[in-house]
Each structure stands twice: as structure tokens, then as C-alpha cells.
Amino acid sequence: MDDLLTKLLEAVEFGKVDKKSPYPPQLRDMDGAHELTINAIESGIKPQKILEEALIPAMARVGKKFAECKIFVPQMLMSARAMGASMFQLKPFFASGAIKTKGTFIVGTVKGDLHDIGKNLVSMMVEGGGWSIVDLGVDVGSDRFVEALKSNPGAVVGLSALLTTTMVNMGEIVSTIREYAPETKILIGGAPVTAEFCQNIGADFYAPDPQKAVEYMNKLAS
Amino acid sequence: MKFKSLIIDDPKKLMFGIAPKPVKTRRGLIIGGGQVYSELNFTLPMMSINQSTLEQVFAHYREIAEGALEHAVHMNSKGVVLEFETLLEMTKTPSIGVEIVRIMNEICESYFQKYGLVSEIRLTPNDLREFERPAHQRSSSHLEPMFELFEQGMIAGGDLLSIESTGGKEVSDEALMMCDVKGMVFALAVLGVRDMQFLWRKIVALANKHGKIAAGDSACGFANTAMVLAEKKYIPKVFATIVRVISVVRSIVAMEEGAVGPDKDCGYEGPFLKAITGIPISMEGKTAACAHLSPLGNIASACADLWSNESVQNIKLLSGMAPVAYLEQLEYDVRLMNAALHAGHAHAHILQQLLVASDVYTDPQALILSPENVIRISRELVKGDSYIANAKNGALAALDIIEEALHSGKMMLAEMETNYIPILREDLNSIPDNESDFIAMMLPLLDESKFTLSEYGL
């Protein structure tokens, strides 16, 4: 692999956003994702290659380490920030069609529920897996999911809930989405949610943790 | 901070069932007056709450209260607190919450009249302001239904008033995920403190107006979120431990404004509040595994005055309905504690030592809850001139205690945990004691679109 891409992969894996960033200590004073991405573009490396050979594999490594309890969320978030710095430089190439993501993921915490930590983690991991994210936030009803689907046809939808009295709202949202676009893939997650509940409400996949959500999404894209 | 010294300065006097300032309730519970009582908390099974399900909702709460109190009589219970922590719809439409209080209070009264069983209701409306982002802590229209529920709920029979208020959560959610200790001090010791002052002044005034008990607030949305995230291995346990200590300066504001306890069950900062202010506290531990896992199962009860289960759904288990089953577990725990208290201080002390010893070195979050460490940290929590200084001093003392336990070989932590100790210490030491200086330091580091300073009186 190109040396620049190897360095970029390492910068994202260890969360080095830019040269002035003090984190991680072992990469202090070295170029971060920001500088390395600019260098890679200027040296003629194709943006799609930057995405596929540096950024996505870096986040896959991060996801694996997190799933194996070898790092905590802050390290993962620093990696996501480093990836964000890189993606910022790649933005014009997404707009021009020079880079394609794996698809769009519409995600939200369902109506009546304000808990978003789990939803945010899933969103970050899926983005790191090469998907575009439409984050609808918290307390989201079926109408807003359908509106987002109208703007992003073919998107995968993710629903999150933490309460036993709000998880029931997932059923209504799934039904409404199915009425509008029956083929939509819908995954659900949250503390009280189970695989059985997922099946009962007609959703496609229950993700017990962020990594499982990414694995499912990647299968859809392959 | 108004409290400058500890009411309980001797770890041996930080005991379950005994508080220097016991609280007497309407029907005669004396919480902290020499025995521990059960506090049962419960919620609905999976269901929607709307106009068409209201009768079912009411039936669930009726079934819970009747089932629990019937079993309490059967078990010769000395008294029970039923905590009614409202769900969103019950606060948005206060009449729903008030009707549930009325139903349960009627049942409490009938068991009091019929069997002499003393029970009370703790009314805990949820903080609706969380629904607005950025939150309008002081100008939100959500305050109206929240306070209507407080007032009408009191009149309907809610005797102990609590809330899990959320001032500062706009900042803390991200700070938790980033292990940003400065962000947590800002969320809790600046925003949280200011919101608590605003909210608890009102709650205490209402309680005094109706002769009810302003009990206390829990930093559940901050420190318990940290604990649960640490249980999932999302953030380090040492960070969750520090967050717990920092949360004390925020939760103690309720007492500064006139709350008298019992502090809320999910506030594991309770032992520090008890040491500093002398109020009785409710705690939860192994009996709360129905709601969340924790590393504090036994040690949490070491100085509890009410012993709680956090929350359990009203679903059928093999033995019966879940709240009844949990009432039984709580009652057996409090029976044991009360038998020890009845046998004298030496016996109570031995039981407390066993409760502590069985957990203390298994997790830093348990470590800081041993009576010796609670007193040591509490001394640091009151010695400074500002909430910020006290939060910082308490957190640094907790880090010292963790490092001592590691160096002595009594506690083991993975390297990925211990790596955070010097980072947290450095971050804490960089915090100035003065609020204005700290705010000036933090504002450039925070996303100001996420909170409104004027809503905190700043």
C-alpha cells in the first residue's frame, strides 16, 4: 500500500486528527488525518482509494478493538474525529460523484424517548464503515422517518429506544415505513429490545451492540 | 457551598438505618431513625400510554400497590415506601400522574387502617425540560406541568418529593463519552449546581406550603449513566468513579435549598450526602439488577436508610408479579440489617464490614463507597470555597484512594484503566477554583449551540 495511505490509516486508527492535536501521545508532532489526506489528494491518489484503503479499514480495526474490549469509546470517538477531518477534505469528491458511499443510513431514537448515546455510537460506527448518515436525533415519529426516506430512497433505517414504554413505538414506525417503502431494511436496538421483539414488529435485524449493526450493514452492502 | 464540615465525621457512625437527621413521615415512618425500610420502585410492562390504555395503566399501578402491600403485611414489614417515578405522558398530562398517586395513596391508607402497615409514596416527576435542545431550563413551558404534578400529586397523597433533574446534561452526555473530566465538572459543578438551586428552591417552597417532605435529587442522568457505560466497558471505571464524586456537589444543592431526605435511591452519591448533611438516604444495589447491572451490590447498602430495587416492570414471574417478588427480596435484606441494628452497634458494624469487604476491592466505584473512604472524600468535598474547588478536591482524593488500593495490591485494574489515572489527574489539576475563570476556560472548548448560559443565570 502507498506509504501515505498507511500513515493515514494509522492516524485514523489511533485518532490523530491533525498535526497540532496532542492525542495520541505516540503520534505527537506528526501529521494527522487532515494533513495526510491533503497530501494524498495532491499526490494524485484517487479519493475512492483513500476511502476504501485507508479510512474504512482504519475504522474496521477500531470497531474490532472496541468489540474485543481493547479500547474505550473515547479512543473510538477520536478515531471518528480523525476520519471526519479526512472526510472533510474528501467532501467535494462525494459531491462530484468521484466517491460513492455504501449507501445511506437514517437513524433516530423513537418518539417519546430522549436517550441517544447508543444511537450516536451506532451512527458513528456505521459512518466509519463507509455509509452516509442522516441522523434525525431523538423523539422521532414515523412521519419524520418517512420524510427522510423520501429524500433518501433506498436508505437503511435504524431505530433506537431505551424504555419499555417507548420501544412499542417502534412497531408503529416500522408499519408506517413498510406502507411507504415495503422493501426498506430496518434495524432496531436499545436496552429493552430483543430479537423476538424485532421479529414481532416486522423489523429486519436486531443489533445488540454497535459492532453488530455495522456487520449487518456491511452485509447489506456486499 | 454552604456545608463546610461533616455532620458524620467518624466512619463507624456512618451506619445503615441511622441518620443524624431522621425524617418522620405522615403515617409514621421514621427514616434514618434506627431501622431500614424497603423502597419499592416499579414501572409498566411494555405498553403504550394513551387515552385508550389509561384504564389499563391505572389497573397496573393498582395491582402493583395492592400486591406489594399485601405481601408486606404477610412478611410483617415495618414499613414501605412506594416510589412512583412518572413516565413522560404522566408528567406531560399531570392529571394522569395525579390519578395514579391518588389510586396508590388510597391503597396505602386502606392497608394502614386495616393492618397498621405504614407506607408512603415518593413522587418523582420526570424532568420534561430534557425534550428541548438546547434546553430552556428556566423559561421552559414544560416547567408548568412538572410543578402542577408536584403540587397536585402532593395533595393526592405523594409525601416525599424527588426528581432526577437534568440541568447540565446538554454538556455531560458528550463529556461522558469523551472521558472529558473538565466537561463533567462544568456540567455538574457549574450548570448542574445552578439548575438545582433554581429547581429546588421551588420544590422546597411547594413542599413547605403543603406540609410535605422535599426529599432529594439524584445525579442519575450523569453518574449512573457513567456507571452503566463503564459496566458495558464503553468508558473506564476510574472515570465513572470520578464522575460519581463530582456529582456530590451538584446533588447536595437540594439540601442547601432545604431538602431533608431521604435522598433518592439511584443517587449513589447518597453516602457522601449523608456524611456531610446528616440526612437519611435511599440506596439500591443487588436488588436493582432487574433495572441495571452494577459493581456495588452489597456495599451500596452499608449506610442505606431505605433499600430500593431501582425499577421493575409489572410482569409475571414464576413466583408472582415482579414488584411483589422484589418487595420480598428487599424485605429480607432490611430484616437482616434491622436484626443487626437490634442486636447492637457491634453486630451492625460486623454486618456492615461484611457488606463492604465483599465488594470494596472489586471495582473503584465500590472502593469509594466504603465508610472510611466516604468520610475521607467528603472532607475534601467541603474544604474549598467553591463548588468547583470541592468537586476537584473530592475527585483528586478519590484518585489517591484508587492508586493506594492499586499499589497495595488489594485492587487490580487493567492497564487500559490505569492509563487514565494520570490523564484524569492532570485534567483535574488544570481546573481553576474560581467559577468565572473556569467558565472562561471552558467556553472556547464547548459547543455553545448545545446550551444556553442565560438559562442557568449566567
Bin the strand percentage of chain A.
Answer: 5-15%
Q: Tell me the helix content of chain B.
A: 40-55%
Profile the largest sheet of chain B. Answer: 7 strands, parallel
The ordered string of helix (H) and strand (E) elements of chain B is EEEHEHHEHEHHEHHHEEHHHHHHHH
Mean pLDDT of chain A comes to 92
Into which percent range does the helicity of residues of chain A fall? 40-55%
From the 3D coordinates, which CATH architecture of the largest domain in chain A would you assign? 3-Layer(aba) Sandwich
Low-confidence regions of chain A: none
Count of DSSP helices of chain A?
A: 9
CATH class of the largest domain in chain A: Alpha Beta
In whole angstroms, the N-to-C terminal distance of chain B is 18 Å
End-to-end distance of chain A: 23 Å
The main sheet of chain A orders its strands as 2-1-3-4-5
Strands of the widest sheet of chain B, in order across it, are: 7-6-5-4-3-9-8
Oligomer: heterodimer
> What share of residues are in beta strands of chain B?
5-15%
Mean pLDDT of chain B: 96
- What is the total number of structural domains of chain B? 1
Give an account of the 3D structure.
- Chain A has 222 residues and is α/β, with parallel strands linked by helices.
- Chain A has two domains: 3-96, Orthogonal Bundle (Methyltransferase, Methionine Synthase (B12-binding Domains), Chain A, domain 1); 104-221, Cobalamin-binding domain (Rossmann fold), CATH 3.40.50.
- Helix content of chain A is 55%, strand content 9%.
- Chain A has a five-stranded parallel sheet with strand order 2-1-3-4-5, sandwiched between helices.
- In chain A, β1, α5 and β2 (132-135) form a beta-alpha-beta unit.
- In chain A, α5 (117-128) runs parallel beside α9 (210-221).
- The mean pLDDT of chain A is 92.
- With 458 residues, chain B is of the alpha/beta class.
- Chain B has 17 helices and nine strands.
- Chain B has helices spanning 54-74, 88-92, 94-115, 143-156, 169-177, 181-210, 220-231, 237-256, 270-277, 322-343, 345-357, 364-367, 371-381, 387-407, 415-418, 420-429, 435-442; strands at residues 18-24, 30-33, 37-41, 80-85, 119-124, 158-163, 213-217, 282-284, 306-308.
- A seven-stranded parallel sheet of chain B has the order 7-6-5-4-3-9-8. In chain B, strands 1-2 form a two-stranded antiparallel ribbon.
- In chain B, β1 (18-24) and β2 form a beta hairpin.
- Chain B is globular and about 60 Å long.
- The two termini of chain B are 18 Å apart.
- The model of chain B has no long low-confidence stretch (mean pLDDT 96).
- Chains A and B meet through α4 and α5 of A and α5 of B.
